[in-house]
Design brief:
Elements: E1 8-11, E2 14-17, H1 34-49, H2 57-76, H3 88-94
Antiparallel strand pairs: 1-2
Amino acid sequence: MANPTRGREKRGGKRAEGKGGPGGPADPAAIGHHGHARQFADVLEAIRTGRKPLIDGYEGRRAVEAILAIYLSAERGQPVRLPLTADPQLQVRAVGVGNFVRSRTCQ
């Protein structure tokens, strides 16, 4: 049975239609930036007012780690274990991105 949602990515509260396919959306540019913009605005407002942001650094890191795991799994063609700090190959790759993986371990 075909996936009825394939090729329909959410973009700024609207659906971006596309053909989709095995590699993801037909047009990666169709994925909006609106969520990121709201996150940045919230962090700036939190700094200005002294409150905690809606999503703190730890939770943000966990989200990025999940996305990295998805890409790594697709690259390898097999499951990837979390946290990614358990993956020595990723440790080497992480040096180029500011030791992202060597920071706090997700639990």
